């Protein structure tokens, strides 16, 4: 199953195709300045064989060296299958797109995976390799740790990718706080996808809750799905407390099971029905009777 961090690590390049230009500078690779980028289909399946898909594929146009293909793979852990699929991707794309140069970028979130991904992949004999693939790797070992708001504001896409790749960094709290502060003056259309991509990229790590807390500080600024979710959680908690207070005031005893049923409920319409019934209920069963 594809994880949220996996999706965020490559999808950010679809949202911001020009991001690779800044990433290549960070990684120390001297490439011509892109003038445009086009998202291409990711399906690399042939007529008969097993289906193969690269995570993200972009056609990058440059002013001096012409176009090239950028294949982006988000890699969460070492995977022996990539030693055969990555060379296949590059060879297939080179053939399918009439000999266009192909560059493979692998984005990782941990040092061990990044070190593994950066190793050249060789096909052929030990004495004479026929094909050698050299992936370009972006990860916590070479992406910048951005804790300066002005720096983050200059390039929000790069700051977002940097935060995602440093999800396990002990200083990730400062990194996320910087990104959040940099977004406060950004237009809503820019802030929304970055808020969501960052949340997706952090997955279920502890840093994900730190990001939620930062976003929740001023949810009026963020109009994203995640902020709506946070507001709903707040409403649900308020209704749970109100329901418990009403039942207590009316002298209605609650079992541990009933109390757990109330405090674990996140369904706002259902909580509202329970609150309405609690106003006239004489027993706990009167509150929940129609929901069994």
From TrEMBL:
Protein name in UniProt: Transposase
Organism, scientific name: Streptomyces laculatispora
């Amino acid at each position: 199953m594809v994880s949220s961090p996996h999706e965020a690590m490559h999808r950010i390049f679809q949202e911001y195709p020009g991001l690779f230009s800044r990433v290549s500078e960070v990684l120390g690779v001297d490439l011509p300045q892109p003038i445009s980028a086009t998202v291409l289909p990711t399906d690399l399946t042939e007529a008969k064989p097993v289906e193969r898909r690269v995570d993200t594929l972009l056609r990058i146009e440059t002013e001096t060296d012409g176009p090239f293909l950028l294949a982006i793979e988000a890699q969460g852990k070492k995977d022996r299958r990539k030693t055969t699929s990555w060379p296949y991707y590059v060879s297939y794309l080179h053939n399918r797109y009439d000999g266009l140069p192909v560059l493979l970028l692998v984005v990782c979130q941990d040092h061990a995976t990044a070190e593994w991904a950066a190793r050249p992949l060789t096909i052929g004999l030990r004495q004479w390799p026929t094909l050698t693939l050299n992936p370009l790797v972006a990860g916590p070992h070479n992406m910048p740790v951005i804790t300066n708001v002005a720096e983050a504001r200059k390039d929000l896409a790069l700051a977002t990718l940097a935060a995602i790749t440093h999800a396990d960094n002990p200083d990730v709290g400062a990194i996320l706080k910087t990104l959040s502060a940099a977004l406060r003056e950004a237009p809503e259309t820019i802030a929304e996808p970055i808020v969501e991509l960052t949340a997706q990229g952090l997955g279920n790590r502890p840093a994900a809750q730190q990001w939620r807390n930062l976003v929740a500080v001023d949810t009026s600024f963020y109009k994203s799905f995640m902020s709506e979710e946070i507001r709903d959680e707040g409403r649900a908690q308020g209704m749970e407390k109100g329901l418990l207070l009403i039942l207590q005031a009316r002298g209605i005893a609650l079992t541990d099971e009933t109390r757990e049923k109330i405090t674990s409920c996140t369904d706002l319409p259902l909580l509202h029905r329970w609150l309405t019934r609690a106003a006239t209920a004489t027993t706990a069963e009167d509150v929940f009777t129609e929901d069994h």
